[in-house]
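Assess this today:

___
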Amino acid sequence: MYLSILDAMYTIGSTSILVLALITIVMAVFKKLSRRFAKGVASIILITVATAYVFPNVARTELRDRLTQEVISTTSERPVDNSAVISALKDITYAEGRKSHPLERFGFELQTAKDVIYLELARDSIDSKAYWVYFPKYRTGDANEIGKIQLK
């Protein structure tokens, strides 16, 4: 539920930022920019940026909570050690910036006793045992990685 609210805030904010930026520039050029409007635009930008930072942490927490259930089966679009991925997902962390980037994404589906979790993984460009994790159920999680896992 909380992720859905954050995702909606991110989607609304990210789509309106460009329009509001253009309106703000036009209003500034014609000297019709009010402080109230400028504060409103700044608030929307601030909320959208904050949501983009908060979302991955909340998504990682939700994923860890959902993985406390027994995983019945997994399906991967690429050959990968499924049990190692499940183990690593239980310890998913923030994707620290190194001089690497994610390569092509592929689907990874987990069936638990209660639900199906669909994720996308992308191998790291430098470390072949590291994968970037995306949560495409939410727009924010599809556009931005929620974390990184390291296979053992």
Q: What stands out?
A: Residues 2-63 form one domain. The chain has a mean pLDDT of 84. The CA atoms of residues 76 and 108 lie 4 Å apart. The helical segments are 2-29, 35-66, 82-89, 139-143.
